[in-house]
Amino acid sequence: MEYQNSLDFAKQLDKEDSLANFRQKFHIPKDDNGNEWLYFTGNSLGLQPKITQQYIQQELDDWAKYGVEGHFMAKNPWMPYHEFLTEPMARIVGAKPIEVVVMNTLTTNLHLLMTSFYQPTKTKYKIVIESDAFPSDRYAVQSQLAIHGFDANEGLIEWKPREGEELLQIEDLEQILNDQGDEIALLLIGGVNYYTGQYLDLKKIAELAHAKQCFVGIDLAHGAGNIQPNLHESGVDFAAWCTYKYLNSGPGSLSGIFVHEKHAYNKELPRFAGWWNHNKETRFNMRQPFNVMPGAEGWQLSNPPILSMAAIRASLTIFDGVGMNALRKKSLLLTGYFEYLLQQIDSENIKIITPKNPEERGCQLSIQVKNADKKLHQKLTEKNVITDWREPDVIRCAPVPLYNSFEDVFNMVTILKTLI
Predict the structure, then answer these.
(1) Measured by CB atoms within 10 angstroms of the end CB, which terminus of the chain is less buried, N or C?
(2) 114/89 Cα distance (integer angstroms)
(3) In sequence order, what are the residues at sequence separation of 6 or more whose Cβ sits closer than 8 angstroms to the Cβ of residue 16?
(4) What is the pLDDT of residue 60?
(5) In what order do the strands lie in the sheet with 350-352?
């Protein structure tokens, strides 16, 4: 499409947008005067769907009405409640239902999965992460190294951008594996890098790692609900993601996990056990020896927190009403327009560090502003433009196709231009 730098053009795109009505399904924050914020931080916390309160209220009402019998008598019985989320979540990440379950929170799940898929020996024990991985991933793998008796720094290998560059090159990962593959046990990679917004080739990463007999795990915190990772087809061994960013489930909500079908029936994989990954047919007998369930459910430990899952279910209902293909199609157009408008700003101080190739990014653009500090971010906030500042000089902005409009994008860039 040939974009135009005008408000009328942005409004015309909104008129032609078949998903424009979904914006009305979300609460858009407003200032004290009733003016809507320009909200570009769905990559940090998604907005609340208007139906979320209704979904949670249903469970509160059933709790009040039935007490413990709500496990079986609630409108949406609590015993199998997590199963209501499985198929729609599998559709979002491109997986089979047996490969997905919602449970716990993100870093907790990464540790539970590494219990199974980080199997170090004295000679093959190192872990590869991207050099600018989200801090919690770094802390998690360092603690895994330490708890297995290895030096947390010596055992960590960083996949780094080349000198003077911000983005990762797959050839450099291939070189790492060629040089040190015999010493590497696991790769734990952010599928979409939180800082640059780079969407990595998961299938290629899996192929390279498996050729060296390394397991592959993916942190999809910034990918789930944003890009189409096609996890089953990618061949990665496991993945985990949060649901409070693009999946709009509320602050601190639960995580999803993926374990590839090839591991579904392997009962020999080491793992922690609890009553919720025990065979559901005999779970309440209470006196049976542990019998792990097949598939991703076999990594659960405890019964599900229903109120949090109700919020996830509300959001997944909206996703099912759109479909990831349509969502991704709009996302490419919306972020493309955002990129075009930023390029129209006549300033040498602006640089987009997110990949130019739309297939190598989600909706987020990371804008590097030369000689800027957090004051620029604060000035944007004062004008009701809600973005995310990352040191030393990057503003992360995510025009989310479910609720951001083309007019939002135009107005945001207009304000940014005046401040710069």
Answers:
(1) N
(2) 22
(3) none
(4) 98
(5) 350-352, 365-369, 394-397, 388-390
**Cβ-proximal residues to 328 (8 Å cutoff; 6+ apart), any chain:** 227, 228, 401
Please give the domain boundaries of the chain with CATH numbers for all domains. 7-50+324-419 (3.90.1150.10), 57-320 (3.40.640.10)
The crossing angle, in degrees rounded to 10, of helices 135-147 and 106-117 is 40
Residue reference for tokens 């503003």 = 395
Strand partners, 255: 103, 242
Dihedral angle at the C-alpha atoms of 290, 115, 95, 403, nearest 10 degrees? Answer: 120
Nearest residue to 318 via CA among 106, 103, 92, 99: 92
Q: pLDDT tens digits, residue range 327-367?
A: 999 999 999 999 999 999 988 889 999 999 999 999 999 99
Which backbone phi and psi does 277 adopt, to 5 degrees?
Answer: -105, 10
Local structure of residue 104 (DSSP, 8 states): S
Note the pLDDT tens digit of each residue in 132-174: 999 999 999 999 999 999 999 999 999 999 999 999 999 999 9
Confidence band, pLDDT 50/70/90 cuts, at residue 322: very high
